[in-house]
């Protein structure tokens, strides 16, 4: 089955092998990490606890799980090997939820939790626990064997969700859950340093990474400095490499090097490369993760890559065709294919046969004015950057260029002028939804 196509019960994931995209086994699933929420709302599934060959247990975010088929979990291949440590806002589903006695809301009857069902939110990468498989008469073993079993909605039982009172961190997360990263960044910018640190501590790594990318430099540095160094490294790994490089460049050299050493080598490598370029050049502004395909990939392959939800619109506007290897720096750069061209071609067409070779790539030392003129002249939203040997290093998108053309304090100015998320702010001011209750 493909993720999102049908429900997965957590007991079926226990012990399942985890493989990377080329078929090498990474480890086995030992638990599922979720974040409980207030008000009976279904918990968010954050990721999997995977035991690797060395018996070390690591955390695999659900955003890096691409599928479950024939009793195996498939990952993107990018796995952080740092040892898993459970955080205060996290719950281990197998270890802490199963065999719990809970109460059916409708009848007040005690039941025992045997399993829980995970489902993916349609069209998104978010996963929730929405079903609970229970046995009636949850007392001793004899009664459990003979009791009737049934599957109910998460909201149909009490005793698993967080209580409203005394759950400051949970209420905090619930308050901010629906905000876009830019809006949440505006909220954080207007808080005191103490409250900013509390919010950052309550957010998961991916969410905090998205928010940091939208904050002014001084706020980024302040928040990162209040995190434990290992967590700071985890958050930097979750950021886009160009944004992580920009943030690290604001730190003292010693702090920057220490965090780079703590990052996983495969995540640190593109950041190190970006740090070697001048800030206002193509190399300093580019992302190292554009869509790269081999010439023998099909139009169908390209459209599947373009449809990935986490891609920004400028990055999804075109794909870059290169000889292997496909990771930047790639093999020889051959050209690009615009999204509109992909829509006009039959699915089985090879992208190598429809590449646009007229748009010359730019070297990494291209200055900002030249880069701006290039984007304007050709009416494009992304431009390839190659090295002397013709290997693709990355791509500069129009939003990165705008970020460097605007005044240094444009984020602060935008926060002052467009801040409209009043309800969460008011709830923080009057003491509701705060980290300390």
- Span between termini: 42 Å
Q: Structural class from helices and strands?
A: alpha+beta
Q: Write down the overall mean pLDDT.
A: 83
Task: Give a count of the beta strands, DSSP E runs of length 2 or more.
Answer: 18
Radius of gyration from the alpha-carbon trace, in angstroms: 24 Å
| Relative strand content | 15-25%
Count of helical stretches? 19
Query: Largest sheet, described in full?
Result: 13 strands, mixed
- Please mark out the parts with pLDDT under 50 across 5 or more consecutive residues, or reply none: 1-5, 138-146, 164-169, 415-437
Please bin the fraction of helical residues.
25-40%
The gross shape turns out to be globular
Q: What's the SSE blueprint?
A:
Blueprint: E1 8-9, E2 17-19, E3 25-35, E4 44-52, E5 57-61, E6 65-68, E7 72-75, E8 91-92, H1 93-97, E9 101-104, E10 110-120, E11 127-136, H2 141-146, E12 149-153, E13 157-158, H3 168-176, H4 181-189, H5 193-202, H6 205-212, H7 217-225, H8 229-238, H9 241-248, H10 253-262, H11 265-275, H12 282-285, E14 292-293, H13 299-306, H14 313-316, E15 318-322, E16 333-338, H15 339-344, H16 368-378, E17 382-386, E18 392-397, H17 398-405, H18 410-418, H19 422-429
Parallel strand pairs: 2-7, 14-15
Antiparallel strand pairs: 1-10, 2-3, 3-4, 3-8, 4-5, 4-11, 6-7, 9-10, 9-13, 10-11, 11-12, 15-16, 17-18
